[in-house]
Amino acid sequence: MSTSVEELGKLVNLAERPSSVVWRRRTLGNAGSSIPGPTDWQLEAVLTFNQQQAERVLEQAKTSTAKPRDTGSFDNIDWLPVEIRQHFHQDTGTAKYKLTGEGYSPGTFVKSPLTQGYLVHLGNSPNFFLVLHTQ
Fold first, then answer.
1. What is the pLDDT of residues 6-31, one digit of tens each?
2. Regarding beta strands 102-104 and 97-99, do their DSSP bridges make them parallel or antiparallel, or are they unpaired?
3. DSSP structure class, residue 124
4. Domain locations in the chain?
5. Rounded to 10 degrees, what is the CA torsion of 86, 92, 96, 100?
6. How far is it, in rounded angstroms, from Cα 127 to Cα 50?
7. What is the pTM of this model?
């Protein structure tokens, strides 16, 4: 887990500089699998902007014609700040968590090799949850 905006900026495009970030990188595949491949990885980040920046990020996200993919589920949300965890709910009968919020294409955040994913606006807050992964 990292809170470095500078390091995150090396992995994704940050047209607006967040006031704070919490992010992690995790491996998706394993050596015995081809889908996802053993070198595929995913970045998960909480981006917090000031109110004006958040409005611009949201405006930009709404202009994208690309459809965001389903947000899927998460095994572990312990690394997230407590105030962000409220946007997740546990799937009935499982140990997985689903994200709630308005989903968008990751658009302006995409930077090779992280070319797939989604952006979720968390309620009416200036917080966004970004997931990008290799393909």
1. 999 999 999 999 999 999 998 876 55
2. unpaired
3. T
4. 5-67+102-133
5. -40
6. 9
7. 0.89
